[in-house]
Amino acid sequence: MTIPAAGETFSCGISTLVGGTHGTGQVQTAPMIRRYDDTAYAAHGNYGVHYDLTLPLYNPTTETQMVNVALETPIKQSATNEALRFFEPLPTATFFRGTVQISYKDDAGLPRTKYFHLVQKRGQQGEPLATFAMPAGDRRFVNVQLRYPPDATPPQVLTVSTQVSP
Fold this sequence. Notes:
The chain has one domain (9-27, 42-162): Jelly Rolls, CATH 2.60.120. The protein contains no helices and eight strands. Helices cover 0% and strands 41% of the residues. The chain has a four-stranded antiparallel sheet with strand order 1-8-3-6, with no helix packed on it. It has strands at residues 9-15, 50-58, 65-72, 94-105, 111-121, 130-134, 139-147, 156-162. It is mainly β.
């Protein structure tokens, strides 16, 4: 998985909806066996699902790149040609509250595991869970694990970004 160019990002849907696939066309909300008249249509996440995602990142450039990995809760949209959108200021509604684990080798090559209890509002851009330097030609595995919280509201995405050099 090639890291994005400096100043760019890419995101992978963790929990997307029928009306908010962010251009992927992938509805990652499990089908409901029964829907009651007073409930939303497919507006639920995959509650309780354990996500265990390994990103095999690769820096194909000839320079060291600073890479960030974040979990985000963007504004729901279906557009295929738009970047993720976020609110500023943030609304008050909490859309994600849960523990996220990230494991990777740090810049010294030592294994690191970090845990975060994230609380994200609707349309909130995520802070980096990890930031690390990838030398030219470097390959690095980054593992992200979470159990999708039962009170979360989609969408959530996992975002990889490359910082612009100063």
